[in-house]
Every structure is written in structure tokens, then in C-alpha cells.
Amino acid sequence: MEETRHPDAALLEVDAPHRELLDQVLDKWSLRVLDSLCGRPMRFNELRREIPAVGQKSLTATLRRLERNGMVERVVIDTRPLAVEYRVAPIGNTLNELIDSLLRWTTMNMPEVERARERFDDEADAV
């Protein structure tokens, strides 16, 4: 029997490495950090002020994870004292439109999602 896979099926696979990358790029703090850094480069404490809910440890871990994945660049600025600035790397910048689209989608569809959740919960409570 002939296989009827979509021609781009290999591009659409979500295997372990893909899931790991998506988990790391689309998590709670990574989205906020990338959104902030798309506006302009920032130092660590500027990011903390921009995202007050994030703790120091979480922000450090998020920046390291984003840097490891090539989404963010850490730039040492030769001043006295030395300063470190974080910037969105070119590959990270390619996510900007996608993230904005995803956030627009969630805003537009959230009322329907909430109605579906209520229906589901009401049916579950009735059982």
C-alpha cells in the first residue's frame, strides 16, 4: 500500500529534540524575556525590573537556557566596572513574529476556550 504522507511531514514532526526546544523557548519566563529583549538590549537588573515577578534564580536559568539555544547573546561591555548586556540573537529574533501571532491567537480565542472549559467542567461535575 502506498504511503500518503504530507510532503512536508518530516518538517512537521515533533520528536524529543523538537519538544525540548519548544518547551525551553515557549515557557513562562522565556516568552517574557524574549519579548522584553526584542525591544532593546538590557542588562540583568533591567530585565528584573521589566519582569518583576521573575526571581533572580529563574531569570539566570532562563537567560542561560536561551543563550545555550542561540536565542540570546550575552555581551560583555568593556567599562569600569565590566557590564553584561543581553540581546536577542538573530535566530531568536526570527521568533518575534511567531510569538506575537501566538499571543494574538490566544487573546482572540480565549473566550471560546473558557466556554469550552466551563462546559467540560460542568459535564464532569454532573457525572
UniProtKB/TrEMBL annotation:
GO molecular function annotation: DNA binding
Q: Does the keyword DNA-binding apply?
A: yes
Tell me which Gene3D superfamilies the record gives.
Winged helix-like DNA-binding domain superfamily/Winged helix DNA-binding domain
Q: Which protein is depicted?
A: DNA-binding HxlR family transcriptional regulator
Q: Which InterPro entries does this entry report, sorted A to Z?
A: HTH_HxlR, WH-like_DNA-bd_sf, WH_DNA-bd_sf
Keywords attached to this entry: DNA-binding, Transcription, Transcription regulation
The scientific name of the source species is: Conyzicola lurida
Give the superkingdom in one word.
Bacteria
Domain HTH hxlR-type intervals: 16-114
